[in-house]
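TL;DR need structure tokens for one chain.
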Amino acid sequence: MSTRPEPAPETAAADSPGPATPTAPAAPTAPAVKPGGEWLHYAVRNPKLLIGSFLVLVLLATGLIGPVLLDNGDPNEYVGPQASPPDGTYWMGTTTFGQDVYAQFVHGLRATFLVGVVGGAIAAVIAMLVGFLAGYRGGLVDEVLTMLTNVVLVIPALAVLLIINAYMGVRGVAVQGLFIGLTSWPWAARAIRAQTFSLRTREFVDLARLSGSGTWRIVFREIAPNMSSYLFMMFILLFGGAVLIASSLDFIGLGPTEGVSLGLMLQSAQQWSALQLGMWWWFIPPGAGITAIVGALYVANVGLDEVFNPKLRES
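>> reply
TL;DR here they are.
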């Protein structure tokens, strides 16, 4: 029996005397979205995220650039006629004492964003440290940290702030942000702990543990990257919550004793009967500014949720 191998189909076709059969062109395929840029692909097509982010950036730019363009560096200085409505000289009018409302507004935007960043960042850091450690280690460590979280959760923040104010003569925006950050992290820590519980039994965590990696190395190199979108949205919620808490404290007279913020503008307008006097230009701008900041943050957060969650994507 012959052991000669049979020619391959391509070779046989090439040796055949008939005309060659033309090869059909490959069908064009749509460009695939890279895994790393998938979220960006959907982010630029999400109207909620775009509108919310644009409004936040406009307000942030106003708070950063506005004070620089003013001739007067002190927003509380008496510079114009008293209780004057908006005109070409004073765009948002003046207060009962002749202070420029526009100057106070742009300085107040800067202070409001600052307290939101400081308070939100401090709360986020504490929440991640407590939540990651409790969720990954479990056992006694989890019980102790959960007890600490519950204690901070039930502490009456207003009573603590009253005590602090009684012993602190001068308070600034940074101190207010520090206090908000130290009291607003428990709910976020609970959420991170729950997410960490579900991730610590995954295979990639077991492999990292078998390779000899330590606790924090596993947390920040294996678990945290898989929660990056969740952590980012959590910071946005903490940021907006810090702005609301700061504005509420300012309005009841427990805010900073120096500088100006949107909450302090509302407090001054209420204290000097701006509503009864019909001085709408004194209380509407700060109220609208707070509403716009917090509302834009939450709208952007909903958009991010739709971007990161495939089940919520419209397209």
